[in-house]
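Exam revision sheet. Question 4 asks you to relate a sequence to its structure. Input first:
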Amino acid sequence: NFPLDLAALEVPSTNG
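Answer key, structure tokens:
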């Protein structure tokens, strides 16, 4: 997961 919710591709867990 990336700290950037581009399009919630994965699970928004590590969202900054």
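Marking note for examiners. The chain has a mean pLDDT of 62.
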